[in-house]
Amino acid sequence: MFCAECGATLNSQDKICSACGAKVEQPVAAPVAAAHVAVPAYRKAGFGVLGITRTVLKALSEGRIIRNAIAIVMQVVAVLILLAGLLALIQILKLSFALNSATATVGGLVVAICVAVAVFAIAQIYLFRAQSVRELEDSPFTVVPILSIMFRAAGETYAVLALSLGVGGCIFTWFSGMSPRTLMGGLGDAIPGMPAGGGSGFLDGLIFGAALVVVAFLVLVVFYALAELVVVTVDIAINIRRIARREAP
């Protein structure tokens, strides 16, 4: 049950909308005749319309199918992230043990640990956000709340990955005296905003780590702002519709 003024979700007992304060008009029960009972519109047999068609379209309009489908996709993505992370971890370990010095190998192991923690954290983010999508309530807007959650997940993913590579790359430079890209290779190139990291000194490693920490924070803020902007846009649309209805003759 939704408010006629702003579209907010209502309970059957509500007399006033908690979102806009409009009076809720309770539906009047139609008189039931002895030989005839009113049937909801979506259950009427309609010419040539199958029952499964009505069921699917009703579920789509309420958003259940879309929410469940996107939640399942996000869970599958979480599994794929774990598999891709495992492959990246194996590659980093191979390169670490191929280095000439023991300290460089230790630095490579630190990078591998950071990557493993990041991959696990990202998979957890997608599983959590998938559950958030599945738990969304029915509303006049189906895709917009999901889009807001997806923006948050994208920002969190980038922030976790950039932060872990920044810390791991900094420690690797301190231990090995080499550029972090020696181990990261294509993984570093795949992340927008990754610094060149060409130096090999203590200060170079510190700059590399600090740069990625700053980039991770900025990207997280930007994606959270986009998520909130989507919700604000919906609120503006609801308020405009409410004002238009009140001003209509």
Q: Supply the helix-strand structural class.
A: mainly alpha
Q: Strand-and-helix sequence, N→C?
A: HHHHHHH
Oligomer: single chain
- Mean pLDDT metric: 79
What is the overall number of helices? 7
What does this protein look like?
The radius of gyration is 27 Å and the shape is elongated. 29% of the residues are buried. Helix 2 (64-97) runs antiparallel to helix 3 (102-134), helix 3 packs antiparallel against helix 4 (143-176) and helix 4 runs antiparallel to helix 7. The longest helix has 46 residues, at 202-247. The model is unreliable at 29-40 (pLDDT under 50). It is 67% helix and 0% strand. It has 249 residues and is mostly helical. It is built from seven helices and no strands.
SSE inventory with pairings:
Elements (H helix, E strand, L loop, with lengths): L50 H12 L1 H34 L4 H33 L8 H34 L4 H4 L1 H4 L12 H46 L2
Helix pairs in contact: 2-3, 3-4, 4-7
Summary tags:
67% helix, 249 residues, single chain, 0% strand, mainly alpha
